[in-house]
C-alpha cells in the first residue's frame, strides 16, 4: 500500500521502486504505525536519490523476527549526521531536488518501532547510498 502511494513521487524523479511479492509473512505491529515508518523510510530514500536511481524494499525472515529493508543508491549520509540521526538533534537536509523536511521523521520512527517491540537501524556511505531496516517480531 505505501509503495503504491509513493509511486507518483518516485516517478517524478524517474526513480525505480522495487518491492518483493507479498507473501504470508506476518509481524506483530500496529498497522498504522508500521505504515508511517515505512512511508518515512521510502520518502527519505526517494528524496535523497538522484533522478534515475533505484529504491528497493527487501523482506528477510530471521528466526523470530522479520527485517524490512529500504535500500537506495542515493547521496548517502555524512558521518557527522549519522551520529545524530535518530535523535531530536538532527537537522533537516534538502533532497537532491531541494525537497525539504522537518528533520524529525527518523526520531519518530525510532519511537514508533520501540513502542511495537521492534528496532530500526541503518548503514550508509556518503556518495553511495543508504540501507535502513526495521526489525519486528514475527507472529505465528
UniProtKB/TrEMBL annotation:
Under the heading InterPro entries, the entry gives: HATPase_C_sf, HATPase_dom, His_kinase_dom, Sig_transdc_His_kin-like_C
Nucleotide-binding among the record's keywords?
yes
* Protein keywords: ATP-binding, Nucleotide-binding, Phosphoprotein
Histidine kinase domain segment(s): 1-140
Q: What class of enzyme is it?
A: transferase
Which E.C. number(s) belong to this protein?
A: 2.7.13.3
Name of one Pfam family that matches: HATPase_c
- Return one GO MF term: ATP binding
Reaction catalysed by this enzyme: ATP + protein L-histidine = ADP + protein N-phospho-L-histidine
**What's the protein here called?**
histidine kinase
Q: What is the lineage of its organism?
A: Bacteria, Pseudomonadati, Bacteroidota, Sphingobacteriia, Sphingobacteriales
